[in-house]
């Protein structure tokens, strides 16, 4: 069966003289699997996600998502592959302040050409499930935790086959972190969707099928 993520012999370094962040990293994530990525600040977690998203190419090795090797696609094809199959929660939310929370959530559905009425219904449901008040006229006024939850709703709006999330519970209190974890870790079973989630929280990581720990010494361990 096709893997959600297949990384083989991936080495990545920024600049010729720097130490590689990863050397010969192999990672195979199945289509219904959840994997947590842990590791101290600077160990390369966000970089790993960027490689998975095809946002940049590894120095050596291959990265395939849902059976497609990023290296074989043009930048336009990579954008289309992401839009059709991937949901992304960036570490710092990356929301547009001038839009309402719901408009932010709906943006990927506009790019994907989804029926606007269906998308709106799903967007409202997602925000409700994540307990975000949808009344705000501007995303600029919502709290840090609400921003994070809006970013997760936006990642899920197109029913992606792979969700990649960079510290999605980082600015949430315990209760909201649990609501968020419930939603994310239900995805493999409820939507047949793979999940790669960076977290500093042991409690969150323990809910994943597997934990990948990156270390700054460029050695990787898996449990
Ligand atoms: N575009 C870049 N050019 C040069 N160096 C980079 C670039 N992006 C990241 N780095 C370096 O690579 C290392 C890993 O960065 P990365 O953002 O992947 O860490 P991280 O594990 O996500 O950390 P954090 O937990 O703080 O988010 C850092 O030392 C960072 O300075
Ligand atoms: Mg990071």
Automatic annotation (TrEMBL):
GO cellular component, one term: plasma membrane
Recorded GO MF terms: ATP binding; ATP hydrolysis activity; transmembrane transporter activity
Presence of keyword ATP-binding: yes
Keywords: ATP-binding, Lipoprotein, Nucleotide-binding
Every ABC transporter domain range: 5-223
Database matches in InterPro entries: AAA+_ATPase, ABC_transporter-like_ATP-bd, ABC_transporter-like_CS, ABC_transpr_LolD-like, P-loop_NTPase
GO biological process per UniProt: lipoprotein localization to outer membrane; protein localization to outer membrane
Keyword Aminoacyl-tRNA synthetase: no
Family assignment from sequence similarity: Belongs to the ABC transporter superfamily.
Protein name from the UniProt record: Putative ABC transport system ATP-binding protein/lipoprotein-releasing system ATP-binding protein
């Amino acid at each position: 069966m096709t893997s959600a993520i297949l990384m083989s012999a991936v080495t990545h370094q920024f600049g010729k003289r720097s130490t590689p962040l990863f050397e010969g990293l192999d990672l195979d994530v199945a289509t219904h699997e959840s994997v947590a990525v842990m590791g101290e600040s600077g160990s390369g977690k966000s970089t790993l996600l960027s490689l998975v998203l095809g946002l940049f190419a590894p120095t050596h090795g291959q990265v395939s998502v849902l059976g497609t090797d990023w290296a074989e696609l043009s930048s336009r094809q990579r954008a289309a592959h992401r839009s059709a199959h991937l949901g992304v929660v960036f570490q710092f939310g990356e929301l547009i302040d001038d839009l309402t929370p719901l408009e932010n959530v709906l943006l990927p559905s506009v790019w994907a050409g989804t029926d606007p009425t269906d998308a709106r219904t799903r967007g409202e449901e997602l925000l409700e499930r994540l307990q975000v008040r949808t009344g705000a006229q501007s995303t600029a006024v919502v709290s840090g935790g609400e921003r994070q939850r809006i970013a997760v709703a936006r990642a899920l709006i197109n029913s992606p086959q792979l969700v990649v999330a960079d510290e999605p519970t980082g600015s949430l209190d315990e209760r909201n972190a649990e609501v968020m974890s419930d939603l994310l870790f239900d995805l493999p079973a409820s939507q047949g969707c793979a999940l790669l989630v960076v977290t500093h929280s042991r409690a969150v990581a323990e809910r994943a099928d597997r934990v990948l720990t990156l270390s700054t010494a460029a050695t990787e361990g898996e449990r």
